[in-house]
């Protein structure tokens, strides 16, 4: 079974340079039978990075994947609060460079005009967008999402934003963390996939995703080096679903989503 990992980082991995860290990621990937991985964000993170920090982090990813294009893809990290600089970075790394996707984290919620401008440009470039989402309990009275960071998106924000971008290839990161709510929130958005990485390997998560969204809309990712490959693979391998459904989730769906941009760039899949 071919396994492609949507969600890997250089942070939390041994090594003093991007090159050393990608080799460490690949060393463990080989043990687990992971064929390819997507990498985003640099060796040190900032929740609201200024343009120079963005460029530095993206340069680290470019350095990491250089020479390992047969195993690793890069996603460009952007901050919508610096829209023009982010659009320029998208052009530098994806349109004119080897990267194939966009990573958006917690600087600004995704149902805002600035983020939607990035969605529009990503659609034009056929780039896949990975949007972090979470539902943290907080507020008075407490509610899911009430404890989020100010710029941290929820799956409900994704559902609202993507209605205006029907051709966008977007993956809702972490399935919202509180996945029972997150999966339901994006159920009506047929062009949105759910990322499975970065939460505890809880029994029933993948089964619910298949039941509510269909196996074609679930994408395996590990969130390494913050999470282990093994714990995240176990979510899928241990799920009570069919072997063809596991094959889609572990690699088939990501290959389909990345297919157009890989073809346009002449990259193999």
Task: Describe this entry's structure for a reader.
By secondary structure, the protein is α/β, with parallel strands linked by helices. Helices cover 41% and strands 15% of the residues. It has helices at residues 18-32, 51-65, 83-95, 113-125, 155-162, 179-185, 205-213, 229-237, 243-264, and strands at 3-8, 34-39, 72-78, 101-104, 128-131, 137-138, 143-144, 169-172, 192-195, 218-219. Strands 1-2-3-4-5-8-9-10 form an eight-stranded parallel beta sheet, with helices on both faces. Helix 1 (18-32) crosses helix 2 (51-65), helix 2 (51-65) runs parallel beside helix 3 and helix 3 (83-95) packs parallel to helix 4 (113-125). The model has no long low-confidence stretch (mean pLDDT 97).
Which sequence of SSEs, written as H and E, runs from N to C? EHEHEHEHEEEHEHEHEHH
Spatial arrangement of strands, main beta sheet: 1-2-3-4-5-8-9-10
Question: Beta-strand level of the residues, as a percent range?
Answer: 15-25%
Query: If you compute it from the alpha carbons, what radius of gyration comes out, rounded to the nearest whole angstrom?
Result: 17 Å
Q: How many helices in DSSP terms?
A: 9
Residues in helix, %: 40-55%
- Gross morphology: globular
Number of strands: 10
Distance, first to last CA? 14 Å
Q: Major beta sheet, specifics? A: 8 strands, parallel
**What would you call the structural class?**
alpha/beta
Mean pLDDT: 97
Extract low-pLDDT stretches.
none
């Amino acid at each position: 079974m071919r396994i492609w990992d949507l969600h890997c980082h250089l942070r939390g991995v041994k090594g003093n340079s991007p090159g050393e860290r990608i080799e460490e990621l690949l060393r463990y990937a080989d043990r687990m039978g992971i064929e390819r991985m997507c990498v985003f964000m640099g060796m040190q993170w900032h929740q609201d990075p200024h343009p120079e920090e963005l460029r530095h982090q993206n340069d680290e990813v470019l350095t990491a994947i250089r020479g390992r294009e047969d195993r690793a893809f890069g996603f460009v990290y952007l901050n919508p609060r610096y829209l023009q600089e982010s659009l320029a970075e998208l052009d530098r790394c994806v349109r004119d460079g080897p990267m194939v996707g966009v990573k958006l984290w917690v600087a600004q919620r995704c149902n805002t005009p600035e983020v939607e401008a990035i969605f529009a440009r990503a659609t034009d470039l056929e780039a896949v967008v990975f949007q972090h989402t979470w539902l943290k309990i907080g507020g008075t009275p407490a509610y899911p999402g009430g404890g989020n960071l100010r710029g941290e998106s929820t799956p409900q924000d994704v559902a609202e934003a993507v209605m205006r971008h029907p051709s966008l290839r977007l993956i809702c990161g972490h399935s919202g963390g509180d996945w029972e709510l997150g999966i339901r929130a994006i159920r009506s958005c047929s062009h949105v996939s759910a990322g499975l990485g970065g939460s505890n390997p809880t029994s029933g998560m993948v089964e619910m995703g298949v039941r509510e969204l269909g196996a074609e809309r679930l994408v395996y990712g590990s969130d390494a080096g913050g999470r282990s490959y093994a714990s995240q693979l176990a979510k899928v391998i241990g799920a009570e679903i069919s072997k063809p459904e596991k094959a889609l989730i572990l690699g088939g769906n990501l290959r389909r989503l990345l297919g157009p941009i890989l073809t346009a760039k002449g990259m193999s899949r």
